[in-house]
Request: fold
Amino acid sequence: MLPQQLAFIDSILKLNPRLAVFDCDGTLWSGDAGERFFDWELKRGVVSDEVVRWARQRYVDYRAGKVSEDEMCGEMVTLHQGLKEVDVLALARQFFAEHFVRQIFPEMRELIARLQAAGCAVWAVSSTNEWVIREAMQHTGIDPKKILAASAEVKNGLITGNLTRLPSGPGKPKAILEVIKQVPDAAFGNSRWDADMLALAKNAFAVNPNPDLEKMAQEKNWTIYWPATS
Reply:
């Protein structure tokens, strides 16, 4: 591990955090697993042709600003309505292993391991669907039970169209306070959709930040860190 990677890890451990929360896409790994999984599923015909056509058009509208971030993230979950959760988990496992394991930032994986060894509770908070995030955790070292991700109600093993959680933007601190019931000592994110979570934490870290979050981090004096492999 390079000196700057070790220095970053040590700077966080010196804070002696008891609770750390991490965004996932762009923060723990390079790229957006949520959007990639969405495209990957549609190409594989996981859902009906009718749903594929609808979803493709919704994504075009989203990119054009006609569909909100929350709407799109939610629909990337609820389009699985009627599918067996066990089947979607298997797809998520295959997808992440094939396309994203090598994208994980080594220093973030090392940081998670060292935080947990020091007694810090570590959670993942993401607007990507919970199936991808749950399967990704085995590669990051975070307990799959300690995730707050976009999720839908499951009845009798089947996914329903009822969205139960959407941690995006203000939804991230809302989920943290509702479920974990603590203010994080440290929070890590890469985009403006993480800004509310970073603002909640005692110590905020903009990791691999998009230009909008980088600007905000500079204004708020949050720590900015660029992974060595980003």
